Amino acid sequence: MKLRKIAPSILSADFSILGDEIKKVEEAGADLIHVDVMDGHYVPNLTFGPPVIASIRKVTELPFDVHLMIENPERSIQDYADAGSDFITVHVEAETHLHRAIESIKEKGLKAGVSLNPATPLCLLDDIIEDIDLLMIMSVNPGFGGQQCIKNTLPKIKKARNLIDERSPHVLLEVDGGVKLGNIRSFKDAGADIFVAGSAIFTSDNYEITIGEMKKILNEE
Length: 221
Ligand code: DX5
Ligand code: ZN
Fold this sequence. Notes:
The protein is an alpha/beta fold. It has a single domain, classed as Aldolase class I (TIM Barrel, Alpha-Beta Barrel). The chain contains eight helices and eight strands. It has helices at about 20-25, 50-55, 75-80, 100-105, 155-165, 185-190, 200, 205-220; strands at about 5-10, 35-40, 65-70, 85-90, 110-115, 135-140, 170-175, 195. Strands 1-8-7-6-5-4-3-2 form an eight-stranded parallel sheet. β2 (about 35-40), α2 (about 50-55) and β3 (about 65-70) form a beta-alpha-beta unit. The mean pLDDT is about 95. The protein binds D-xylitol-5-phosphate and zinc ion. D-xylitol-5-phosphate binds near residues 12, 146, 176 and 199.
């Protein structure tokens, strides 16, 4: 059976008790911690950078799935690596030298991901799909938690699944944005491996129940 993973996005956590929130989702069964880095330029919102990541690195053993929504991410990869990232994902739209950015992430011994916005076509990955470790399909326009998933996402995930199966089966397929208990099954059926969920987990009354129910759906055949 395929191992599918839940990655709670701490964007929707209570930042005043961020360490506790991370420990709580770890105890509740999270597989990865999804860390949304926003620079106020590539996306309108501003979140946190390497010092905060280095600080929360101390509270959990879970891998950090760092999603860079920043311009020219290649320039900051060393900083995010030093802060304790395990996966670093950059946006195709934000990086002129995508191949160099991917190589630079891998040289540091980390997993390299590429993310596509809803309007960015999969064909942009034609010449790089063999080189990456993770493909993230955005199911919302990046910048904010708590948005509704955009309609065309499911066919795009299916296409991405086919591309990965045909050309680069080691690549993990991640879906980010608007994932909830009510729709996680459709993302699973479309072929995703990693499911980012921010508001669906952090606004729920009981993280363990929410993550548990999500995993139950993911583990059903
Ligand atoms: C959006 C972020 C997402 C977001 C997901 O820019 O990349 O990771 O936090 O949040 P929800 O699950 O609330 O859509
Ligand atoms: Zn994200």
